[in-house]
Design goal:
alpha/beta; 6 strands; 3 helices; five-stranded mixed β-barrel
């Protein structure tokens, strides 16, 4: 009788150890997934983007790398092929340096693409010929669409 109670104690002790081991393994697995997600977000550079001049200055180092660039759309260069969904255009450096970056985008043309003052944020890979092959195209609304500040008078 004493042997059976000793065996049941050993078995119950191993069950507790197995539960603790599963809990520790699950915690480590969750921590690893969270760490992977943080590293992948940091690797994509968050919301940071480069100016056209910065890309032109670092062009050799950025070839075949994913970059995010912001620039003023040069509306005279917009070429839209609706049958193949190909959009080609050039963005200008917003600091007025005159530097340009040609962009190729395969997708739907945004409505405000040909409006004066449109600023594009494009994300993609820089080809060896200096053209940015964009995967993502986002247009900022020109500042003239923002509401003018209103004067508020205090009533005494």
């Amino acid at each position: 009788m004493a042997e059976s109670s000793a065996i049941s104690r050993i078995q119950s002790g191993s069950r507790t150890a197995n539960k603790q081991l599963k809990f520790i393994f699950g915690g480590v697995l969750i921590a690893a997934v969270i760490l992977y997600l943080i590293i992948s977000v940091i690797g994509s550079e968050g919301a940071y983007y480069k100016e056209v001049g910065e890309v032109q200055a670092q062009q050799a180092a950025l070839i075949d790398r994913k970059v995010r660039v912001s620039g003023l759309v040069e509306i005279t260069t917009v070429s839209w092929d609706p049958t193949n969904f190909n959009l080609d255009f050039t963005i200008l450096d917003q600091r007025g340096t005159g530097e340009k970056l040609p962009v190729h985008f395969h997708g739907v043309q945004p409505d405000n693409m040909t409006r004066e003052g449109s600023v594009a944020i494009v994300e993609g890979r820089l080809r060896p010929d200096g053209v940015l092959d964009a995967d993502t195209l986002l247009l900022k609304c020109p500042s003239r669409y923002e509401e003018a500040p209103q004067e508020v008078k205090k009533i005494s």
